[in-house]
Amino acid sequence: MFFNERIQSLNRERGFLCLGLDPDPEKLPHGLSGINGLYTFCSEIVAACADSVVAIKPNLAFFEQFGFEGWQVLARLREQKPEHVLWILDAKRGDIGNTSKSYARALFDNLGADAITVSPYLGADSVQPFLTNPEKGVFLLALTSNPGSNDFQYYGEPPLWQTVIKKSSTWDTQNLGYVIGATRIEQLSQARELAGTRPFLIPGIGAQGGSLEAAIGDGLGNGKFPGVINISRAILYVSNSSDFAEKAAEAAQDWNRKIAHVITTTR
Prior knowledge:
alpha/beta; 44% helix
């Protein structure tokens, strides 16, 4: 099954919530520290929230800062994750062709990613090595949620972020989607019009203050189009005590209810 078909099927079965796994060592609950604390925190969060999410998205930087041991934690978490939950590695890779090919092997083959995030800045030949397996997905950085995206992504006429979507949409592939930030309320509908039915990975809701209603209505067509809505800090750090996993699970369930409510009331 093409990745884009798979994610749409999972959306119908399990919804749109993606758990962003960004374990900041300085924010671990009391009693947890170092690489062992990182593993315990992530493992319990994954186990507690797996029934409420369609995808889990580890940000590799939070693991790579621990070196080889961080990669070992990622591999262990991938083994523990239920098979029906997508494993999206937020890697933001992108380089000349042979380097991208090696990145693809590392992320898809060794770390078991179902999908990854990729920078489009070097152009088509830097992205194509990530697209060779149609069962594995690629989310191109198009319009990100951070304030600094104004520096380059809006440059030119049409702006660079639109050019990224327009150009890549001509590629003959069924496993390509886009990262579109929920903080970009006015651009979500434009991005959807340019991208057609390709899936969106939508960050920026929760701690960054993005609009859930715009993400669902304009970004996902009220559930008509595939994609995931990423929530990180608003789930991970609800509690700093021993009940952190239980509270995270409750937060994930609450976000699921919010997403479902928006979909049912805006159709």
